[in-house]
């Protein structure tokens, strides 16, 4: 990321999301004593780059990526949903990889009350059931669209997303399938339908329900 991208991203986030950034003097990794970390604690990342700005703006969040600590028999891991799959990475290996990108990391321990309710074995079992599941750009847009009318960024009209991806579909169907259409097909219980075909299918189902 060059300085121009950084500046533009920060300006966008400050204007549209009321974020302000201050430069930290200490940019070295501060190692956390592993004995202080518990399963269920969150580990969040923040970086004022274009993709993070887009994620935060669309989802209404303040972090570009949220992961979780989880202890296994062979040590402490970071479990996460990231492109391309849901996976786990040893903690020290994970943090060393992120240090090369100058990304801010924030450790958020569970409260004592929340920790008492946290079922560590159930969390491990759930992770095993999901490990390797495809995740990434195919899920990205649905972080924005979680209600019918109320959760798109305020500058985007509700009708813009399907229209935009209909245009993209005519240019490069692989892109529209990856980010938008495949997810709609999954939700509709269909396979391989285009956006116009999905719209027709949805209208047909709505007529049936009425």
- Please give the CATH class of the largest domain: Mainly Beta
Count the beta strands.
5
Helix content: 40-55%
CATH topology of the largest domain, by name, is putative xylanase like fold
In order across it, which strands form the biggest sheet? 4-3-2-1-5
Give start-end ranges of low-pLDDT stretches.
none
Q: Tell me the radius of gyration.
A: 20 Å
Shape: globular
Tally the helices.
9
Distance between the ends: 52 Å
Largest sheet: 5 strands, antiparallel
Question: What share of residues are in beta strands?
Answer: 5-15%
Average pLDDT over all residues: 88
**How many independent structural domains?**
2
Helix/strand order: HEHEEEHEHHHHHH
Give an overview in words.
By secondary structure, this protein is α+β, with helices and mostly antiparallel strands. The chain folds into 2 domains: 3-20 and 35-132, putative xylanase like fold (Roll), CATH 2.30.260; 142-209, no CATH class. It contains 9 helices and 5 strands, in the order αβαβββαβαααααα. The chain has helices spanning 3-17, 50-59, 91-99, 112-117, 120-130, 137-140, 160-171, 173-188, 195-209; strands spanning 42-46, 65-72, 75-81, 86-90, 104-108. A 5-stranded antiparallel sheet has the order 4-3-2-1-5. A hairpin with a 4-residue loop joins β3 and β4 (86-90). α7 (160-171) crosses α8 (173-188). It starts with a helix and ends with a helix. The model has no long low-confidence stretch (mean pLDDT 88).
